[in-house]
Specification:
It is built from two helices and no strands. The chain has about 55 residues and is an all-alpha fold. Helix 1 runs antiparallel to helix 2. The longest helix is centred in the N-terminal third of the chain and has 22 residues.
Amino acid sequence: MTYTARELVIFVGGLVAIIASIYNIAAGATGTGLYVSCFVILMFIIVIVMTLKKE
C-alpha cells in the first residue's frame, strides 16, 4: 500500500503535533494548556487513523 505525498505530510504533521503536545504535558502543563494538549492529541490521532485507513 502506497501513500500520496499529501497523506504523508498529514501523517508527519500529526505526529509532530502529538509529540509537541506530549512534551507540553510532560513539561508540566496545567489548566487550559493541559486540556488543549489532550484535545490536540486526540484530534490528531483521529486524523492519522483516518488518513492511514485507505479503502
